[in-house]
Input
Amino acid sequence: MKPVVVRNISRADGSVIEALGSYGVASVHEAQGRLGLMKTYMRPIWPGAVIAGSAVTVLAEPGDNWMLHVAIEQVKPGDIVVVGVTADNTDGMFGDLLATSLKARGGIGLVIDAGCRDVKDLKEMGFPVWSRAISAKGTVKATPGSVNIPVVCAGVNVNPGDVIVADDDGVVVVPRAQAAEVAVTAKARIANEAEKRRRLASGELGLDMYNMRDPLARAGLVYVDTLEDLDK
Amino acid sequence: MKPVVVRNISRADGSVIEALGSYGVASVHEAQGRLGLMKTYMRPIWPGAVIAGSAVTVLAEPGDNWMLHVAIEQVKPGDIVVVGVTADNTDGMFGDLLATSLKARGGIGLVIDAGCRDVKDLKEMGFPVWSRAISAKGTVKATPGSVNIPVVCAGVNVNPGDVIVADDDGVVVVPRAQAAEVAVTAKARIANEAEKRRRLASGELGLDMYNMRDPLARAGLVYVDTLEDLDK
Amino acid sequence: MKPVVVRNISRADGSVIEALGSYGVASVHEAQGRLGLMKTYMRPIWPGAVIAGSAVTVLAEPGDNWMLHVAIEQVKPGDIVVVGVTADNTDGMFGDLLATSLKARGGIGLVIDAGCRDVKDLKEMGFPVWSRAISAKGTVKATPGSVNIPVVCAGVNVNPGDVIVADDDGVVVVPRAQAAEVAVTAKARIANEAEKRRRLASGELGLDMYNMRDPLARAGLVYVDTLEDLDK
Amino acid sequence: MKPVVVRNISRADGSVIEALGSYGVASVHEAQGRLGLMKTYMRPIWPGAVIAGSAVTVLAEPGDNWMLHVAIEQVKPGDIVVVGVTADNTDGMFGDLLATSLKARGGIGLVIDAGCRDVKDLKEMGFPVWSRAISAKGTVKATPGSVNIPVVCAGVNVNPGDVIVADDDGVVVVPRAQAAEVAVTAKARIANEAEKRRRLASGELGLDMYNMRDPLARAGLVYVDTLEDLDK
Amino acid sequence: MKPVVVRNISRADGSVIEALGSYGVASVHEAQGRLGLMKTYMRPIWPGAVIAGSAVTVLAEPGDNWMLHVAIEQVKPGDIVVVGVTADNTDGMFGDLLATSLKARGGIGLVIDAGCRDVKDLKEMGFPVWSRAISAKGTVKATPGSVNIPVVCAGVNVNPGDVIVADDDGVVVVPRAQAAEVAVTAKARIANEAEKRRRLASGELGLDMYNMRDPLARAGLVYVDTLEDLDK
Amino acid sequence: MKPVVVRNISRADGSVIEALGSYGVASVHEAQGRLGLMKTYMRPIWPGAVIAGSAVTVLAEPGDNWMLHVAIEQVKPGDIVVVGVTADNTDGMFGDLLATSLKARGGIGLVIDAGCRDVKDLKEMGFPVWSRAISAKGTVKATPGSVNIPVVCAGVNVNPGDVIVADDDGVVVVPRAQAAEVAVTAKARIANEAEKRRRLASGELGLDMYNMRDPLARAGLVYVDTLEDLDK
Output
């Protein structure tokens, strides 16, 4: 495929994005049927940030950050840049200069299946990044890639305009067309959990609250006083 | 083996457990002859916690957290739940709801050879977890496992009632029958280190304090002014 | 080769070392042509430290910290001890006692291609370490190695007296003979970046600031409104 | 998304598939602009096999091989089953019984981002598999997934009907719509290489054949007799 | 614990061991409830060997093969030596001299959670080894460990006298007391598979043979002609 | 450092190189004091080859194989090209065309701390390669590196002209100046092993042949009949 930049992408509704961000990665991941979670090697470069936004996608060559400059022009306020690469790589493709530029255009974060550098500066800027590595390794600008095409990032297919939610638990991708429905499901799930949390905090057991005792017995679970009793 | 829950386990003496916790992982590991240390991939999900307690063990299928609910009923105040799985896995088998339940029953921490989620909530609760991964990946409740049987967790055999000590250096397991003796050895070791620390801080060399110069010379170590002198 | 300690090593000029430390790992790495960066598995055991100093090198057997005691005698104020091992290893070869001793002799940090322990103590002491692992695993004192010979640490060749710069981005090695020149280049680079940062912060695009549009077009990059337009 | 099986998929032309197989993974990968290569952890369970076919895709839960039975019904002669999973996993989801069934329906191979077992039997059957691991770990049939939807396998997006080429170098995916064009490009590339191979075998240097000397000099490469000459 | 060699261990019945070997790793693993499988990093150093025997266990320090000499004296014809180490290590603790000695005493194979060397010689001798790495790295004889105590090898607890089965799929451990029962279960499983294999080879689908269609429908699986039909 | 090609390098004596090759990696590694072994991830792309030759070194950028063409011009018959890269990388930097060229100039093998492709062709050519990965990923020719400067390859420092020995056990580097001495030591070691092998094959124990019983007892090893006897 020839290198291409797609200028017009559709985004999910702002209120839906905001809602998904407030539910967090684990709840959103559950609400869409346990799909869309990036691999666990994607970690925040500093802890505590929670963001949600629309994906501006980048397909880059490993060790080549040319397309990040290209992508920033396509960013609208509230967007998150998501970078996939064509082979495993940990080079530091993003640092404080690119973050300054991305932030100036309204970008709120970066998700990159490669390395990130200038960690201390990014933390001081409050600019959140999820990456597979931290590396000062510099990069070249030799081969063009593409912007706003479907990419694979950390094991998940990301389409431009999909909703990205990222926090200390990792990164989850919600297909744009399903974002509203997932938000509804996640909201119900969160509401439901508050009551469960109250009951568990009072000492009620999950075994009882979820009626697990019968299914466990049917699945063959037995209780004994000591391990020696098992063979009796 | 059929799935089983063992209700009665023996625990080490409370004062021994408390003492072991105060010595920390490195000292306890040394005191028992450099045994019992879990693999280094086991890391705290937030830094700074130090805990010691009796192991309530769980053998679970990867990606299936059914037995965690079962285990919580067997927990007594001060216990630590230790989870081994039957194949390598990083799914998020433990989160804030289970932590709420475990804490309500007196559990003081979790050690899991798999993933953990809701990291931010767990940190805010002050509930410490040592895990091989952080992952929002949801789990099923399909196959029963066992509680309070011997399990392997992160490369170490753990019997129910063994003493677990965990801090920023990792996790060490002390067999229950040896806990008192290890505590005595560790205490002596700690006392001995205070004097060493004072001497080293004053600038005395380990080479002299430990009388290493002669053994090193006998082992063939030579001193030269420059590398070129070596071939003379 | 027989085990040897080289007593006399040359060091770079103190003002050069200080300057390199002020520029940070990423800038220094760039300034010397993207060379000398240690592998990304080398991470600080606590965040935020930035150090620069002359390397006192150690070649040790895996799981054997005897030579660390030997090395400390060769340390001068401002030095950094750099430890390579002869096979991959994560054992905790360095802890609070050795740190106390190293600090007392003026050492300002440790870079070790193996494990480190007593993380909490080291953090409280403010003593920075970059290591490939955190591990409480104890070590032996059985086989001598060497001090102040060329070693490989985390994929980079380090000669005694080379300048080490380490921060949250990792560790970079500057050959002693090139340190002054690299410092000049890095300084110019830093100065140049301040102006770029200002322009990018104001919303100017890297595409324009770096005149990338023509080269990208020549490399075949095309812009379309939608992906479907590409096949027209 | 709810679990779904898509019955009708489009496949590339048989002669195109056959041609792509004859060119091999490396040439096909180059011919489509160095895209579509699966991660290097995907290895053949026995060496020497070369296959090309249309992808029947499967999205499965880790450790759950229920959907493989479902997928086999959708296979047409010459197809290759490609399995992605929703979280990293190495369990043995495929063995000799499933291979017998898949082969009986005309399937010619399997590409799975998880584990495979019965390696000796599969080798004796001559049934090729590319997997991320070999593992005897058994699996459950608890959660449905999907068949013939877009999946991510080993870092590459695979759509049903895409052409898969696999050999000892790995696995490459060719989007169905581009298969014919890629085949033409690859054929030209192969033809071009034969002449190059002849010239290189005769001792001609790539430096001369590709006219690299001038570009290298312009990029700053210098020749010296000894390393010491560099500083003169 | 002090270093110890236990001289008397119980072994399973020879005919049971032989039977388990004939069923292979995958079937034995299934027959004991999917337990006892070593981690997938344990690979044969040459393909094709299948062995079954009683475990003589060794707990060794990483990089120290002293105890292998000690263990060989305890080996009886048909035994397999199983080596666990106290920290992750890949050094070459076993080579052709030790293999010559072990073979002379009747040992039939080695399973080691560390490295192995002299691979070509071992292959020519026909002596099978399963290891986590191949490494020529030499080892010391500095610290005693133990023989015939419970050890953890590649994530599985192994007691002396347990039955080890190893083939191209990996290594499985059968507790001695359960070996006879597991052999009976595995035999039935194998018999059952022959008929299944015949039916699948004839083109019958697993979907029908295992009556999966109804459970799948109940679990929510739907069939559509094209993906677009899903949203109708 | 600027990119440079050093034309004149010194090589070890041909008879020394031949001798080292005949002893194999493990013996040579031992003979030079257990130094110089590359990391265990370096594996032959096909089994059975044994080579020894002089290193022509290459420092390349990851994913950029320009310097391999440059290096081939510097190769003399019997040389082995050794490639280090400036950051971790697995791209396929070497394939059948480069092998044809290298072979035509007398090169006998390649050792590369990156990926290799065209595995089947290379095997058919009988051209041996040791690499960290097999990957069809194509590379660019964008940035010059250097030839015949000191490089780090797989954790070992390699100087141009050093002797490389590679076989199924891995790759070992012998500094040129020490090659003759190491060959003498290795020869003696090999001779010594033949007698040991004969005695071990006859059933004599290493415990007796090496007089280990007393040192083991002094180190605290005890023998008991059963584990229960230990506590008596």
